[in-house]
Structures are given as structure tokens and as C-alpha cells.
Write a structure and sequence with these properties.
Structural class: mainly alpha
Number of domains: 1
Number of strands: 0
């Protein structure tokens, strides 16, 4: 689902909701839907304390920076710099959680990075940060890896509380960004709001909330490096959906990259299976 995130953003942009406002609009409706639940679970939110708020704020800041980066740099550069996330996640897990860096994870990172660079035409050069948008994309990847580490560092946080905190923080930070970052949004008239609500409300209820809930439940179960590898499937899905819904064409390069990224996400499952199969073959 994350790989199709660009579709409602593009529709909102075409409807007059530009930049950070599009991100804010997508999250305001889920925030309003969750408000009664937040009030009902206020004692649980208080118990979550600084750990809950810092995790939600980190997740929100990462999403907002990633979305806003596209205003200041090329899409390809933003995606490439953000998806260094598995590297940061693996390092955070090692330094903060004392989790070992396995050969399987290193192999997966190499596969995923190779696939990503193939899709985004590495022959045009490495995307070293050169402008504010590049730094936003790079920073968002680091902050997301930190957020993933926080969910594992504080695994007792209830997924409902975390997703509520995350969405509230995104909506709040988006509103603040509109005031403090000139040119990041233009507020449309009332008519665009009426035109997008019929599809934005069900999208929020049946897509955004379930996906966010799945993420907040799943992240604490995984090493931050592993979750970063699995999130790289966004690149494959984004490439496929862009080819399906736009004039972009999938060629051998894209297909090769998608295969490598898919294998990267499965590497920590497939490699142990292959090793066991080889041992069984030798033993027999």
C-alpha cells in the first residue's frame, strides 16, 4: 500500500492541495476519526509518556520530510536518499539494541541497494545531497530508522495508541509547516474540499488507518534493518503502479531491479531455508 501512496497525493495536488497541505489533508481525517478513541484511552496515552510521544513524533516527522522533499528535489533523488533506511536501521539496532548484524541482513541490504540503483539509473551518478530537498529525504530516512528502533526499544506501546499518536503528530506538524515553510502549500477554496471528501473519507477509513495500524503493530516485531528492507518493496510497487497508471514504461532494467528488491525483502527467510536444504542434501 505504501507504494501506491503517490496516487492520492497526485490527485490531491491536481485538485489544488499542493505540497505539505496534501499530506496534512490525508492525515486530518484519520485524526478526527480517531479522536473519540483517543479521548476514551487517555489514561493509556498518559502511561505511554515520553516514549509514546517521541516514537509518534519521529514517525510523523519522517513522513512529513519525505513528502515535502519532493518540492525541492527530483523524485528519483528523494527516493534514493530516503531508501538508505535499511543501513541506518541496521546501525541503530546494533548500537542501541545490541543486535548482531548478520550475513543475511548484509546480503539483503546489498541486493536491495543494487536493485534500487538499477531502477533509478545509477549510470547517471550517485545521488549525494546537493540541495534542501536532498537533505530532507536523507534526514527522513534516518529519522524513520530511528522511529523503527524506538518501536523495538519500547515494545509495550499499544498499536492503537501509537498509530493515533503518529497520525495526530503528522496533522499537527503539517499545519505548522504551512506557517513556517513558505511555498510548501497553497490553501484552496471550499469547492476542492467538497470534491475530494467523497473518496478521501473512505480512503482514510479503509486504507490509511488499517495500513498505519499494521505498520505500528509490525515494526516492534522486527529488527529495524529488516523492516527497512521490507519497506523497500515500495519502490517495486511504485514502479509497477506508475507504469500501470501513467505513461511510464517498464523495461528490462526496471524488471531486474524489482526482482532484486523482492529477493532482498525475502533474504532473511530464503537464505536460512537454502542453507538447511544444502545441509540436508549433504547429509543424505
Amino acid at each position: 500500500m505504501w507504494g501506491a501512496y503517490w496516487i492520492p497525493l497526485r490527485v490531491l495536488d491536481a485538485s489544488g492541495f499542493s505540497g505539505v497541505l496534501a499530506t496534512g489533508v490525508i492525515h486530518v481525517i484519520p485524526a478526527l476519526i480517531l479522536l473519540p478513541l483517543i479521548l476514551k484511552r487517555r489514561s493509556s496515552f498518559r502511561r505511554g509518556g515520553i516514549a509514546l510521544q517521541s516514537t509518534g513524533a519521529a514517525m510523523a516527522l519522517a513522513i512529513l520530510l519525505y513528502s515535502t522533499a519532493f518540492l525541492y528535489t527530483d523524485v528519483v533523488r528523494a527516493v534514493l536518499l530516503y531508501y538508505l533506511t535499511p543501513i541506518w536501521g541496521t546501525l541503530f539496532a546494533r548500537l542501541w539494541l545490541a543486535e548482531k548484524i548478520s550475513f543475511d541482513r548484509i546480503f539483503g541490504i546489498v541486493l536491495g541497494m543494487a536493485g534500487m540503483l538499477i531502477i533509478f539509473n545509477i549510470d547517471q551518478g550517485l545521488p549525494a545531497p546537493k540541495n534542501p530537498g536532498d537533505w530532507m529525504a536523507l534526514g527522513s530516512g534516518v529519522i524513520w530508522a530511528l522511529a523503527a528502533t524506538l518501536t523495538r526499544r519500547f515494545p509495550s506501546q499499544h498499536a492503537v495508541d501509537l498509530v493515533s499518536t503518529w497520525i495526530i503528530w503528522v496533522a499537527g506538524l503539517a499545519i505548522l509547516a504551512m506557517f513556517f515553510l513558505p511555498g510548501t502549500a497553497s490553501i484552496p477554496t471550499a469547492e476542492p474540499y467538497r470534491s475530494v471528501l467523497p473518496w478521501l473519507v473512505p480512503l482514510s477509513l479503509f486504507v490509511v488507518l488499517p495500513v498505519y495500524l499494521a505498520i505500528t503493530w509490525g515494526l516492534p516485531q522486527l529488527n529495524p534493518g529488516t523492516s527497512g528492507l521490507l519497506f523497500m518493496t515500495e519502490i517495486s510497487v511504485g514502479t509497477l503502479t506508475a507504469a500501470w497508471l501513467t505513461s511510464e514504461i517498464i523495461g528490462p532494467r526496471e524488471i531486474t531491479g524489482i526482482i532484486l528488491i523482492s529477493l532482498a525483502g525475502l533474504s532473511e527467510v530464503l537464505l536460512p531455508v537454502l542453507r538447511n536444504a544444502m545441509r540436508w542434501t549433504k547429509a543424505s
